[in-house]
């Protein structure tokens, strides 16, 4: 007889007690949401689930690409990752690591497999502490923005798999969102409720994203 093996069939629940804006629809009408270390892809018509299980810690935020076929999900923990993956096959397209940090940062060179031709390329990976609390994908371009406990915003190039901008805030952020045309970024500030509140907690900041001398910058507009 073949050896018996247990497989995950159904996950009950939804993470809502400490995260927001993490329930999304896909192009095919599937519902995507996090539970613990898993992202659930729920088919309400067929009443079935698929499970993205590449995260090593609890998933705190997610965003869906405007094509509605690609999801980016961010985790917490001592060395969190942001996985960019395809909804239907649950295939990882890119893993972003190493810029949000709290405490000691370590640099390590790693090998990465090219998604286009299968060739091996060098990339840089860093380890950071603190949670990635907010994530949004640009509506028109292959880039994303993240925020977290380290009081920074990070702009990611999804094609080149690297961070292209670090922007320092006064306190931690809990939400980020692009405007429909992608020209502006809204940031919701808020620190750890178990610690002393910062004077900027509860503030929404608006930034304009622009390119100056070939470099991407965020220009402050209003709070």
From TrEMBL:
InterPro entries: HELP, WD40/YVTN_repeat-like_dom_sf, WD40_repeat_CS, WD40_repeat_dom_sf, WD40_rpt, WD_repeat_EMAP
Entries under SMART domains matching the protein: WD40
Tagged with keyword Membrane: no
GO cellular component: cilium
Gene Ontology MF terms: microtubule binding
The keyword Repeat is assigned to this record: yes
Keywords (A to Z) from UniProt: Repeat, WD repeat
Gene3D superfamilies on file: YVTN repeat-like/Quinoprotein amine dehydrogenase
WD repeats: 132-166
Top-level taxonomic group: Eukaryota
PANTHER family: HELP DOMAIN-CONTAINING PROTEIN, WD-40 REPEAT PROTEIN
UniProt-recorded name of the protein: Uncharacterized protein
Species assigned in the record: Aphanomyces astaci
């Amino acid at each position: 007889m073949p050896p018996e093996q247990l497989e995950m069939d159904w996950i009950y629940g939804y993470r809502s007690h400490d995260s927001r804006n993490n329930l999304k629809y896909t192009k095919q009408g599937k519902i995507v949401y996090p539970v613990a270390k898993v992202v659930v892809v729920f088919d309400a018509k067929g009443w079935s689930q698929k499970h993205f299980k590449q995260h090593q810690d609890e998933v705190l935020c997610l965003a869906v690409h405007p094509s509605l076929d690609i999801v980016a999900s961010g985790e917490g923990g001592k060395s969190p990752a942001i996985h960019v993956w395809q909804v239907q096959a649950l295939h990882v397209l890119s893993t972003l690591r190493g810029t949000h940090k709290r405490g000691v940062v370590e640099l390590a060179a790693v090998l990465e497999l090219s998604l286009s031709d299968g060739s091996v390329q060098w990339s840089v990976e860093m380890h950071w502490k603190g949670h990635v609390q907010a994530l949004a994908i640009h509506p028109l371009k292959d880039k994303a923005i993240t925020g977290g406990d380290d009081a920074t915003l990070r702009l990611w190039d999804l094609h080149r798999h690297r961070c292209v901008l670090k922007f320092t805030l006064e306190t931690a952020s809990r939400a980020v969102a692009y405007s429909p045309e992608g020209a502006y970024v809204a940031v919701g500030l808020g620190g750890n409720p178990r610690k002393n509140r910062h004077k900027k907690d509860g503030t929404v900041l608006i930034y304009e994203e622009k390119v100056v001398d070939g470099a991407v910058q965020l220009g402050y507009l209003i709070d």
